[in-house]
Amino acid sequence: MREEKLSFKQMCAKFDVTPRTLRYYEYIELLKPEKDGRNRLYGARECARMTLILRGRRFGFSLEELRQWLLIYETKGTAPQMQIFVDMADRQLDELARQRDELAVTIEDLRSLREEAARLAKRESD
Question: Which of 68, 69, 89, 109 has its CA 20 to 30 A from that of 27?
Fold first, then answer.
């Protein structure tokens, strides 16, 4: 059974990315499509990698972290890649928790200042 390949344009549409983004991911070797003349063809492997890349970006991982992580699979296999992912995820979870805590403090400060400003505005208008 022949694997269906996506064109460059189809890949952009499927993953809702710009052509510039897709070309950049290729440039930094996150993706390695097949070449047929000037055409690029993306198979299941590249689609899976793109899914992982976009998910990793959503979680806050850098492109370099993702590139290194994907390279581990190619050179060492699944088990080492999963262990590295656990370490990366632990670090990112700590960072996201820190950011959440900072954001909670900022929200509370802003809420407090807003309430004070509302009280002052009401007093001035009375």
Answer: 89
Q: Which CATH class is domain 1-61?
A: mainly alpha
What 101-108 contacts at long range (C-beta under 8 Å, 24+ apart), as own/partner pairs, is none
Determine the Cα–Cα distance for residues 42 and 36; give it in Å rounded to an integer.
11
Whole-prediction pTM value? 0.80
Cβ pair 60, 97 in contact under 8 A: no
Q: Mapping DSSP to helix (H, G, I), strand (E, B) and coil, where does residue 70 land?
A: helix
31-48 tens-digit pLDDT: 999 998 999 999 999 999
Spell out the domain ranges in the chain: 1-61, 77-126
List 36's β-bridge partners, or say none. 39
SS3 for 34? strand
